[in-house]
Design brief:
Structural class: mainly alpha
Number of helices: 3
Order of helices and strands: HHH
Helix content: over 70%
Largest sheet: none
Strand content: under 5%
Radius of gyration: 28 Å
């Protein structure tokens, strides 16, 4: 009878396992401090603006070049 008690093990469903593993992984994360988060957010916004300006310039140049080639 003791053997049956050992064999009968409640299996964990996928949702429970997902949340348990996610919580465990989040405990391992090295979270940035507030000053680091603000600095990195500013950096991301700056890069987005620079890339946006670059792409707008490339689009304008391609449009002008295509207009010259096609004579529009």
């Amino acid at each position: 009878m003791a053997e049956k008690a050992k064999k009968v093990k409640k299996t964990e469903n996928a949702i429970q396992r997902y949340f348990r593993e996610t919580t465990g992984e989040l405990r391992k994360v090295s979270w940035p401090t507030w000053p680091e988060a603000r600095r990195l957010t500013g950096l991301v916004l700056l890069v987005m603006v620079v890339v946006g300006i670059f792409l707008a310039g490339m689009d304008f140049a391609a449009e002008e070049l295509l207009g010259l080639v096609l004579g529009i």
